[in-house]
């Protein structure tokens, strides 16, 4: 789901963009769904330059968040107008039944 969102956002992927290795400690030793994400190669000047910008990092974060929500079956909601302070997820979440609340700050 994250790869699909990255492609949709026009983010360049190396190869297939997917490397599956269950022997990685962070993936092997968890009972929860897990993903390990690497954004770019720091030995690549063009990617390093992109990673230095707030706008690109925000775009990557949004791609990751949307992909994770897609996987969980939760609809993406844009942030509310400034000053409202919080967003409640819809009742469509199969894991929390819509009780999850995200607060800024």
How does this model look, in words?
The protein has 105 residues and is mostly helical. Helices cover 35% and strands 6% of the residues. It has helices at residues 2-8, 25-28, 45-51, 54-72, and strands at residues 86-88, 101-103. Strands 1-2 form a two-stranded antiparallel sheet. Helix 1 (2-8) packs across helix 4 (54-72). It starts with a helix and ends with a strand. Mean pLDDT is 78; it is low at 85-91.
List the main descriptive attributes of the protein structure presented here.
6% strand, 105 residues, mainly alpha, 35% helix, two-stranded antiparallel sheet, 4 helices
Rounded average pLDDT:
78
Rg (C-alpha, Å): 16 Å
Order of helices and strands: HHHHEE
Strand ordering within the main sheet: 1-2
- State the share of residues found in helices, binned by percent: 25-40%
Give the biggest sheet.
Answer: 2 strands, antiparallel
In short:
The protein is mainly α and about 100 residues long. The chain contains four helices and two strands, in the order H-H-H-H-E-E.
Present the secondary structure layout:
Blueprint: H1 2-8, H2 25-28, H3 45-51, H4 54-72, E1 86-88, E2 101-103
Antiparallel strand pairs: 1-2
């Amino acid at each position: 789901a994250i790869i699909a969102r990255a492609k949709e956002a026009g983010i360049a992927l190396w190869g297939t963009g997917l490397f599956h290795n269950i022997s990685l400690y962070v993936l092997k030793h968890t009972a929860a769904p897990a993903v390990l994400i690497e954004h770019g190669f720091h030995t690549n000047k063009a990617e390093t330059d992109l990673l230095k910008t707030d706008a690109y990092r925000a775009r990557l974060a949004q791609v990751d968040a949307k992909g994770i929500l897609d996987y969980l079956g939760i609809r993406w909601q844009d942030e509310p107008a400034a000053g409202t302070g919080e967003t409640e997820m819809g009742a469509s979440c199969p894991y929390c039944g819509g009780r999850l609340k995200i607060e800024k700050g």
